[in-house]
Predict the 3D structure of the following.
Amino acid sequence: MGSLKSLITRGSVLFLTGVFFALVLNLLQVQRQVTVFPPEVLASLFSSAWWIPPSCGTAAAAIGLLYPCLDKRVGRLPDKAEWSNVMRCIVVFVGINHASAKIDFANHIQLSTSLAAMSIGLWWLFDRSKSGFGLGLSVAFIATFISQVLVYNEVYRYTEPDFLFVRSWLPCIFFAGGITMGNIGRQLAVYDSDSSNERLKDD
């Protein structure tokens, strides 16, 4: 019962974190007109389509809960909980999103290459696990495919698409997001485990 409660708590925290990131980062993309939504699908909240925050929240919860499970399967020992490291990872992730929307590069290739290097650098600095890299690639592939389908069905669109219907740097953002949410999920699991051990000692 305790483990189920812990799982629900961690999932809820990850869901709310994903919702927050979705609102803030999507607002940045919309303001810079990187993504454009038809007027009829926009809700008033943060000028974002209503389905984006819960979708991102669900994905964040799934990734964050899956990450520590993969660690166990591959025999990776959990690191001591260091929330300062997680916060630095979040700052770098937000910085990558900021670069995609705010910085003007000479061309799409230069932008995509720069963001790819930043995303891999984020993984190298804050993860370095094969399971994390594989999960990040999986998230990037699946999320980019879903984005292609949504744009194809005119749910929204990207200005200046250069990778079928979307921007070529989009997989880099999804990869970095997967690594970031995975690290948050991993640290939540370690913190929860440490808290449980302390309670057992007190008993």
In short: Strands lie at 35-36, 157-158. The mean pLDDT is 80. The radius of gyration is 18 Å. The chain has six helices and two strands.
